[in-house]
Specification:
Elements: H1 11-20, E1 23-28, E2 36-45, E3 48-51, H2 58-65, E4 68-80, E5 94-105, H3 126-133
Antiparallel strand pairs: 1-2, 1-4, 2-3, 4-5
């Protein structure tokens, strides 16, 4: 969190905000390359952030080459058009948002879906978050097999 005297950070509020979000933006840069960016589902807990990446994603390749990454969680709230303040100066328009940036070192980059064992009943994994996005169909998780069963 950015320490600002005008907007002091509140760790509990930041944690609650991140807990209610289902996706964030992973930013990674391979040495000598351009930054790669992917919007990904995630689960945070126990000192880790678990992401679910597509294996062919260039951002995942960048993570493998350089594990120093930023994971950015944000939410758009509103915007104020410039003409509310000045009819000709578009520079006074304002975007209102909440955001938390994690500066991380990626660990356990794997294609093994069982890499992280569940420790408790209800322990979520990023793959479980994806299931929440899929429409339900008879016979699968939560009453539906998701897209694969349609």
């Amino acid at each position: 969190m950015f320490a600002s005297s005008r907007y002091p950070p509140d760790q509990a509020a930041a944690d609650a905000f991140v807990a209610e979000m289902r996706h964030g933006t992973l930013v990674a840069c391979a040495p000598g390359g351009h930054p790669q960016v992917s919007i990904l589902p995630f689960v945070r807990g126990g000192g880790f952030i678990e992401l679910h990446c597509v294996q062919a994603d260039p951002t995942l390749d960048a993570v493998r080459a350089n594990p120093l990454v930023t994971f950015f969680v944000s939410d758009f709230l509103a915007w104020s058009p410039h003409d509310w303040v000045n009819p000709v100066d578009a520079g006074v328009a304002t975007l209102h948002f909440r955001a938390v940036a994690f500066e991380c070192q990626a660990e356990d980059v794997s294609t093994d879906p069982e890499l992280r064992e569940r420790n408790h009943p209800g322990d979520a994994r990023a793959a479980d978050v994806i299931e929440q996005y899929l429409p339900a169909s008879p016979g699968g998780p939560s009453g539906g097999a998701g897209r694969g069963g349609e």
